[in-house]
Structure formats: C-alpha cells, structure tokens
Amino acid sequence: MRLKATFLLLLLNLILPLALAKLSVGFYGRSCPKAESIVQAAVRRRFTRDKSITAALLRMHFHDCFVRGCDASILIDSTRKMSSEKDAGPNLTVRGFELIDDAKKALEATCPSRVSCADIIALATRDAVFLSGGPFYRVPTGRRDGLVSNPDDVNLPGPTLSVSQAFHSFRAKNMTMDDMVTLLGAHTVGVAHCSIFLDRIIGSDPTMDRGLRNKLNAICSAASGSNPDPTAFLDQGTPLTFDNQFFKQIGLRRGVMKIDQELANDRLSRRTVSGFTANATLFRTRFAEAMVKMGNIQVLEGRAGEIRKNCRVFNPRPKRRV
C-alpha cells in the first residue's frame, strides 16, 4: 500500500504542474531555452525581404484571438471533408502562414512537441512589431493549440462599422475602448483593399480629405485583370514604420477606412486618439500592454488542447482500443 501511495504522489507531482500551468514570461526556459530566439530568427529572415510582414502578423494574431481565443485555430488548413477558419470571408486575405511554418519546423528540430503554434504567433508578431520600429514587450507564453477550427465561428468587427458597433466585439472579449483604439493603431503599418473603402470615394465622404480621396481614386482606378482589387496604405505618412503617425493622419481627415476615421471623430474615442497623437511614447507603452492583454484572450493552458507537430493540421487522434 505504501509503495502504491508513493507512486500516486509522484504521479500527482508530475500532472498537477501541467494541469495548473498559467501563461508566464520565459515559460520555455527549461523545456526549450532557444524557443524565442528561433522564432525571432525566422521573423528577421522574412522581414529583411518583406517589411509588410508586420501588418500580416498583426492581422493574423488579431483574427486568431478574436474568434475562439488565441489558440492558433486560424492556422488549420481546410480539407475536402471539413472547412476551417481560413475559408471564412475575413480570413481569405490573411497571410504569413509560411513564416509560422518555418519557425515551427525549426522548433520541432530543436525541441519537438514543446512550443505551441499559438505561442509562435504571439512571439512572431511581437518580433515583427519591434523590427518595424515598435516597442519590444515581454510575451507571456504557455498557450496550447486548439482542437477546433470552424469558419462559422468567425465573426470579426468589420472596417465599415461605427466606433460603438466595433466596440461591442472588443467589450465581449473584456477589452476596453482604450484597448480598441490602441490596437487599431496597428493600422500604422497596414493596408486595405479598394473594395473595403471604395464606397467612401464614390460617395465623396465629407469626412475624408479631398487630396486623399483623389489619391485613392487613382489607385483603385488602376485595377486590372492581374490586380482586380488594389491596396492602399492605411498610414499615408510612414506606412512601413510602427509609430503614432496613423493617429496624426486621421486627425487630418486622412483615414482610409471608415472605422479609422471615426476614431478621430467619435466622442467615445477621440480623446484617446488625441493623446496618442501628442505622445508617441504613450502609444508605444499602451500598445505593448494591449497586445499582452489581447494575447490572453480565452487561452488554453495546462493540459487543454494540444501542442501541434504541424501548425496546419491537428495532431492525429490516438485510436481507441476495442
């Protein structure tokens, strides 16, 4: 009996830390010490040839966290039998998946089945923001990967919503209005397709600067068979640098998307916009805090979910014995 009790105690000591695990900075310090540097190297290689990867990763991270939580469900590929979140309309133009694949391949070669795809997204996004001139912030890790990816679950706040309408989605995730304005500041390195803002040009939206309207009209008029839906930078000042220029631009009626411009006009958000316009350091600080907060939305921890071997597919389920 004493031997059996000792065995059970040892077993509990092994299981309980996993079951009660919480996100923490340096989570992989022992299990995969080079995890963060491996992800950083993958991001740096991509960034040297494609500065727009920062915007792509920011969008991927947001689209992942605001559906089922930050569980990498957005990475799952659709199959002939089942569609995934990638098939949902808002996700059809999400990109950057190959970078996540590269980081995961390198991690699996160094410490197999240790680092989750969800953590790779969070770390890669942080590293890309930093390379673009943004803040470097410490990312708590320890997320697990989800076991569900359903396109019907994708219901994201769209670019044509009002500030109050968009806030409904953020409030549902326990984010504040200040968090929402801060996170939308990521548009300082983003782009939008003409189909998203064309109605503002055609309708001569009075809240849009005339010079910007003419510029965007020229971009969209150049649509062709090879490029049927051109893109325009959301920050007309420093589109590839992570700074507070976006807020200065919308203060001059140079917001490309409706939701961006309304941030500067709506009484619920304009005070925060003014603060970020006047103080770049404040924006950097608040952005780092808001990203960490977003990265904690509905995370899977402990023994929940799984650690995928391939970020694009769920791990094979073990066959049940008959």
UniProtKB/TrEMBL annotation:
Compartments it resides in: Secreted
Alphabetized GO MF terms: heme binding; lactoperoxidase activity; metal ion binding
Reaction equation(s) it catalyzes: 2 a phenolic donor + H2O2 = 2 a phenolic radical donor + 2 H2O
GO terms of biological process kind: hydrogen peroxide catabolic process; response to oxidative stress
Names of required cofactors: heme b; Ca(2+)
Domain Plant heme peroxidase family profile: 22-315
Keywords from the named record: Calcium, Disulfide bond, Heme, Hydrogen peroxide, Iron, Metal-binding, Oxidoreductase, Peroxidase, Secreted, Signal
UniProt keyword annotation of Cell wall biogenesis/degradation present: no
Catalytic residues (UniProt): 63 (proton acceptor)
Record-annotated disulphide pairs: 32-111, 65-70, 117-311, 194-220
Site location (Transition state stabilizer): 59
Pfam (any one): peroxidase
Positions with a binding annotation for Ca(2+) 2: 188, 235, 238, 243
Note accompanying the cofactor annotation: Binds 1 heme b (iron(II)-protoporphyrin IX) group per subunit. Binds 2 calcium ions per subunit.
Residues holding substrate: 157
Residues annotated for heme b binding in this entry: 187
Residues annotated as signal peptide: 1-21
Taxonomic superkingdom: Eukaryota
EC numbers, comma separated: 1.11.1.7
Family: Belongs to the peroxidase family. Classical plant (class III) peroxidase subfamily.
Its job: Removal of H(2)O(2), oxidation of toxic reductants, biosynthesis and degradation of lignin, suberization, auxin catabolism, response to environmental stresses such as wounding, pathogen attack and oxidative stress. These functions might be dependent on each isozyme/isoform in each plant tissue.
Name of the molecule in the record: Peroxidase
Source organism: Hibiscus trionum
